[in-house]
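This part of the workshop introduces the protein records we will be handling. An example says more than a description, so a record of this kind follows:
>
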Amino acid sequence: MSDRVPAAVWPVSAALVVALDDRFGLPVDSYLNGTQTWLTDDGPGGATLEWRLHPVGGFAAPPRSHHDLWETVVGVLHDGANPGALALGGEPRPLSSLWEGLECFPAFGDDLEPAVLAASATEALGIAPDAAGLVDHGAIGDRWERSKRGASITGMLLDELGRRP
C-alpha cells in the first residue's frame, strides 16, 4: 500500500519563477541539489502548503552558492533577462537547466482533495497548475535516489498524474 498525497504541478517558466518571488518572496530553504522550498498558510482553513521548485535531473549548479541562486535568477528575470540565456557566471544558462517544475502539497499531511488543493494553490500563486491529483512521494523519492538524482522528479509527478508531455 502506498501513501498517496494530493499534489499540484506546474512546469517551470520565467512567469512562474517571477510569480513565486512576487507572491512568496525568498524560499525558506535552498538546497545544494537545487531545490527551492516555501511554506505558506494558503490552504483551506489555513492549512500549510509546501511549495517545491524541483531541479532538473542531474542538476549542476552554476558557479555560485546554492543560497544565492534564487536571488540571482529572480534578479536577472526581474531585470528582463532572456530566460533562455541567464547570466549566472560562466556561460549563459537557460532557466530550464536549473529547475523543471513546481509542486505544491499539504505540508503536514492534511487530508485535502486534489481539486481543493489546486484551487487554493491557484489563488495563492495566481497561476493554475497543469496537473493535480494524488502522487506517491515515497516511490518517487526512491526512484530519484536510485537514479543518483539524475531522474526528473517533475516528470515522475506528471507520469503519476497522467499528464506527461
